[in-house]
Specification:
Elements (H helix, E strand, L loop, with lengths): L12 H34 L5 H36 L3 H31 L11 H10 L1
Helix pairs in contact: 1-2, 1-4, 2-3
Length: about 140
């Protein structure tokens, strides 16, 4: 995904939400699927020699599930409220949006902890000496 600067200050919130769901979520889901394939492949091919790959595969699977659930919750619980607020701003809606966001923040801490553990297990996402291209790509993508 191209890392480009978007000037969001003058955009309607509905457009921002559409951008998130149409671009970011689609890109992220594709990347997560590719990473799932990569982590499965390196576990299958190198798991016998590198026992940590079982943990890498398991942790990534948990992270992926959590991130997908987060996107579903955003799309189902927060984004509709933002769209309604964009058409008819009300204090109650803003409070509800922030309440929903606060619920997701606690889950973010869990995801961050999983990534921290994954970083530790992979020695900072450093593939072993002589690792194949798939192994290197998996660790680079995880990073």
């Amino acid at each position: 995904m191209e890392n480009k600067y978007l000037d969001l200050k003058d955009q309607p919130m509905t457009d921002i939400v559409k951008n998130l769901t149409d671009d970011y979520h689609v890109y992220f889901q594709r990347e997560m699927k590719d990473l799932a394939t990569l982590t499965t492949t390196i576990l299958r091919v190198h798991g016998r020699e590198h026992q940590e790959l079982s943990k890498v595969h398991r942790l990534y699977g948990i992270i992926q599930i959590n991130l997908v659930q987060r996107m579903i919750k955003e799309k189902a619980d927060i984004f509709p409220l933002i769209k309604i607020y964009d058409k008819r701003p009300r204090k109650e809606l803003i409070e509800e949006i922030f309440q929903e966001k606060k619920l997701l923040e606690s889950e973010e801490d869990d995801i961050k902890a999983l990534f921290k553990e994954l970083n530790k297990i992979t020695n900072g996402y450093l593939p072993p000496q002589g690792a194949c291209a798939t192994y290197e790509r998996a660790y680079d993508s995880l990073k």
